[in-house]
Design brief:
Helix content is about 75%, strand content about 0%. With about 400 residues, it is an all-alpha fold. It has a domain of about 280 residues.
């Protein structure tokens, strides 16, 4: 039988097994879905852990635009792929809805707002020097973000694991490993998938997922003056490698970027690199948008565009070319068990990352108190807008940090 993948425009039409996939109450238009991701990209703080939690809350639970099965299949697929977790999941859900066009538009909508923000901040950084105010701002924001991350991780745990002891074991193993190594190792996700498959649905036959210009000087002016075309190419190739081979999203990509940007190429000092990471943490959208900030510091606006395009290009191509095959086999018993194992591992890694990020953000009594207050507010006022909470924490952080 000829293998030809045809992406149909909506999730409920794509489903071939009506009993195995939860139907959605409302099917959004592509415009509505793109506008949602544009808003999430502009207002979604907290990094990948919080962002995937927002998608679950908004798209699965509140609006019912996406079925629970589609969401968790997408989460597992995104965790198996390199690059930013939240952006990958956004593109996958766009692909489920409207194929390549959906993946393209939702990906652009999700990334573009934060890219514009870091572009503006990078321009200010180059022209006015170190961002001293970031220290106080991040002092408070880190505490609030920690609370958001913990709540998002807990909701994922509740929705994913249930009373399945095997999934809890896989979850615990990945959580501990992530905290211990401070990184996410892709082969452990694969191993978890195979363990779940062998225990839950031992295959009679082996089944496995198929993986299949001349510019003006102002556009290439960074911290060290005008950059050469060769520097722009080096920036593009370095961030292309980061997007293609670094797993674990923001948590894992930061040490990789540090090794290249500071250690190998000496494009930035350690202080400048830490400022770039801080900017990514206080802006909405994916943490790896720091690539745009770093690219700007090295080679101006063109460097920012080259870095951002490169880091997001490999994950985008994986959605377009690998998702159809993944989707085709997703309802197979063995593949479903594999996905369950990978999802449990992914949530374990997310919980481990929440511990690591919280440990780095909660550095003294005031930050611990701000995190506890933020967590209490999130539990007590379920409709509290996270950006408002983050803004309040940032202002408190500036005041407290200045007075310390």
């Amino acid at each position: 039988m000829a293998v030809r993948t045809r992406v149909v425009p909506s999730a409920h039409v794509m489903t071939t097994n009506s009993e195995s996939r939860e139907s959605t109450s409302t099917q959004p238009t592509l415009r509505e879905l793109v506008l949602y991701f544009l808003r999430l990209g502009a207002l979604g703080f907290g990094g990948p852990i919080a962002l995937v939690g927002y998608m679950q809350r908004d798209l699965v639970e509140t609006r019912k635009w996406v079925s629970k099965e589609d969401y968790f299949e997408g989460l597992a697929f995104s965790q198996l792929c390199p690059g930013p977790l939240a952006a990958q999941l956004a593109k996958y859900l766009g692909w489920v809805h409207s194929g390549t066009l959906g993946a393209t538009l939702t990906g652009i909508a999700f990334i573009f707002p934060s890219f514009l923000m870091v572009l503006g901040l990078a321009s200010l950084y180059v022209h006015f020097g170190q961002l001293a105010w970031i220290q106080g701002l991040f002092y408070g924001i880190g505490a609030a973000v920690s609370a958001i991350i913990v709540r998002s991780a807990w909701k994922l745990i509740q929705k994913t694991l249930g009373r399945d002891y095997l999934l809890w074991v896989l979850f615990g193993a990945l959580a501990i490993t992530t905290v211990w190594t401070q990184s996410e190792v892709v082969w452990l996700f694969l191993l978890s998938g195979f363990v779940a498959m062998l225990v839950k649905a031992p295959p009679k036959l082996k089944a496995r997922p198929v993986q299949a210009e001349i510019v003006g000087p102002g556009l290439v002016t960074g911290l060290l003056g005008a950059a050469s075309f060769g520097t722009v190419v080096s920036v593009f190739l370095f961030f292309l490698k980061a997007g293609a081979f670094v797993f674990g999203s923001g948590l894992a990509i930061v040490p990789f970027l540090y090794g290249g940007v500071v250690g190998k190429f000496h494009w930035l000092t350690e202080r400048q690199f830490l400022d770039a990471v801080a900017v990514a943490m206080i802006t909405p959208g994916p943490i790896v948008i720091t690539s745009g900030f770093i690219g700007y510091l090295v080679a101006g606006p063109l460097g920012a565009c080259a870095a951002a395009l490169a880091v997001f290009l490999p994950p985008y191509l994986l959605v377009i070319f690998a998702a159809p095959y993944y989707r085709r086999f997703a309802q197979n018993r063995q593949v479903k068990a594999f996905v369950q194992g990978v999802t449990a591992a992914a949530v374990g890694a997310i919980a481990g990352a929440a511990v690591i990020l919280s440990r780095r953000a909660l550095v003294d009594v005031p930050t611990v108190l701000m995190a506890l207050i933020s967590f209490a507010v999130l539990l007590g006022f379920k409709k509290m807008p996270e950006p408002l909470l983050i803004l309040a924490a940032g202002m408190a952080g500036v005041v407290l940090h200045r007075g310390s």
